[in-house]
Amino acid sequence: MEQALRALLIDKNGVHESTVEYLEKNRCLTLANFANWVDDKKEIKDIHAKCPKKDDTSDLVALKQAWREVDATISRGVKRASEGLDNEALDDPLQVEIFKGINKTFLIYYNWLTPIDSRRIGCDALHGRFRREFDKRLPSMYTILKAKSLAKSQKSEPID
Q1: Distance from C-alpha of 156 to C-alpha of 151, rounded to nearest angstrom
Q2: Is the pLDDT of residue 81 over 80?
Q3: Is 152 in contact with 114 (CB distance < 8 Å)?
Q4: Which residue among 101, 125, 150, 157 is least enclosed by CB atoms within 10 Å?
Q5: Which letter, b or e, does each residue of 21-57 get, where b requires 16 or more Cβ atoms within 10 Å of its Cβ?
Q6: Could you tell me which residues come within 8 angstroms of residue 80 by beta carbon, excluding any fewer than 6 positions away?
Q7: How far, in whole angstroms, is CA 87 from its chain's centroid?
Q8: Do 134 and 102 have their domain in common?
Q9: 42 lies in the same domain as 110
Q10: How many CB atoms lie within 10 A of CB 63?
Q11: 111 and 57, same structural domain?
């Protein structure tokens, strides 16, 4: 079984080892195999009913969550590949030097006199995503409500 799939199932989602062995025995060996193993999350229950831990509800929940994650990842990768975009490094932050250059160009072009407040600038991952998509001239739709400002992304969570 592919190491990434094993790590996702066992380490990240807590799927029981016997369930993973069942999947492996039935030739579910890669992330793509697992994503295409069923067409709907309801079918996961049928697969889990054949596993040694079929009565363990927490194992079923973990398996469903793992399938959702893999299905979303594979679907996004297929969609992006069909659009000519790289699947890898979608949300990697934009390099600091490139961001500074873009920021400097913006300030000069619009004759902006003061530095832009960090609450008005998107986070690094957002800049990286948009830059990669615009470089390929294939921008995708983005829900603005998901956006975080640079100030918010760098703010640490309060300790209770």
Answers
A1: 10
A2: no
A3: no
A4: 157
A5: ebbeeeebeebbbbbebeeeeeebeebbeebebeebe
A6: 86, 87, 90
A7: 10
A8: yes
A9: no
A10: 27
A11: no
Residue type, 155: K
Q: Phi, psi at residue 129, to the nearest 5°?
A: -60, -50
Last residue of a domain, one of 58, 82, 106: 82
pTM flag (> 0.90): no
Contact assessment for residue 27 and residue 81, using Cβ atoms and an 8 Å cutoff: no
Q: Is residue 91 part of a domain?
A: no
Q: How far is CA 104 from the centre of its chain?
A: 30
Query: Containing domain of residue 125, as a range?
Result: 96-154
Task: Based on the fold, state whether residues 55 and 119 are members of the same structural domain.
Answer: no
Is 148 domain-assigned? Answer: yes
Amino acid 89 reads A
Q: What is the token pair recorded at 70? A: 């893999």
Q: Which amino acid is at 79?
A: K
pLDDT in tens, 109-146: 999 888 887 777 777 777 777 777 777 777 776 666 66
